[in-house]
Design goal:
The protein is of the alpha+beta class and 270 residues long. It has two domains: 75 residues, Glutaredoxin (3-Layer(aba) Sandwich), CATH 3.40.30; 181 residues, Glutathione S-transferase Yfyf (Class Pi), Chain A, domain 2, CATH 1.20.1050.10. The chain is built from twelve helices and four strands, in the order βαβαββαααααααααα. α4 packs parallel to α8 and α4 crosses α12. The radius of gyration is 18 Å and the shape is globular.
Length: 270
């Protein structure tokens, strides 16, 4: 048995950034699938590892580590070569600004855009009893409000507008950061700043939405070309998405593109 076990769900953005980090470190791990659509994250045995009932959870030598941003930092500190965090405290703080962009905006943003594009359709096709169970099991009343609003209103939900605004803020700052440094966020080498952001850019790309934000941001486009070709990204994220998942994203993302672009244009004009 591996001393690293990752409780994982393939197309979860939070799991993806942990997998990219593990691959970048050259580590091997045992993957255990937690199927979110079967509500396996609320299984009592899993809740003992992760009381929040979310993925991922990394178990290292029997000790569970939760919260994807903290898991990535734990991996870097425990397995220091090659380093993915700067040694300098000011630079490390600069790196963590990007973690905050992700945790305080893009995480919910990716969820709302994904939900309005494709998971909404999937939940509409569920038997009513299973759909109600899924909403009950959200657990967090605020998350339930978000899901219900997006389920009922799609892109017109205020939560989707918040998602569009979160991505706009992040990409605006990213263009400036890459202009100052580049080609990676902190300079010549990829760090956790880049890794934390990669799955959230990837989700937009695979939904056919990324250029809605990046069309006028050439340095962000260059960064994404570099990131998406990076071997650790490909092995930790791109290669682990099934063709069925790609097909679902390619099918449903373009359906909301015009609405998303219109709401972004309204934000920019405000």
């Amino acid at each position: 048995m591996s001393d690293l076990i990752l409780y994982d769900f393939g197309n979860s953005v939070c799991c993806q950034k942990v997998r990219i980090t593990l691959v970048a470190k050259g580590l091997e791990w045992e993957a255990r699938k937690v199927d979110l659509f079967k509500t396996e994250q609320y299984d009592p045995a899993y809740l003992k590892l992760n009381p929040k009932g979310v993925v991922p959870t990394l178990v290292h030598n029997g000790t569970p580590i939760i919260e994807s941003t903290l898991i990535c930092e734990y991996i870097d500190e425990t397995f220091p070569d090659p380093p993915l965090m700067p040694n300098d405290p000011a630079e490390r703080t600069r790196m963590r600004i990007w973690s905050k962009f992700v945790d305080e905006g893009l995480f919910e943003g990716a969820t709302e855009l994904s939900f309005s594009a494709m998971f909404r359709e999937r939940m509409r096709a569920m038997p009513e009893e299973l759909r109600e169970k899924r909403f009950r099991n959200v657990g967090d009343p605020r998350r339930r409000d978000r899901f219900m609003s997006t389920y009922e209103h799609g892109v017109q939900s205020p939560f989707v507008l918040y998602a569009i605004a979160a991505y706009e803020r992040a990409f605006k700052h990213l263009e400036a950061a890459l202009t100052e440094r580049g080609p990676w966020i902190l300079g010549d080498q990829p760090t956790l700043a880049d890794i934390n952001l990669m799955p959230f850019a990837a989700r937009l790309d695979y939904l056919g939405l990324l250029d809605v934000w990046t069309g006028s941001r050439p340095r962000v486009r260059d960064w994404w070309a570099l990131a998406s070709a990076w071997p650790s990204f490909r092995r930790g994220l791109r290669d682990l998405i099934s063709e069925a998942e790609f097909a679902e994203m390619r099918t449903h993302g373009p359906k909301i593109r015009d609405q998303v672009a219109a709401r972004l244009a309204t934000l920019r004009a405000a």
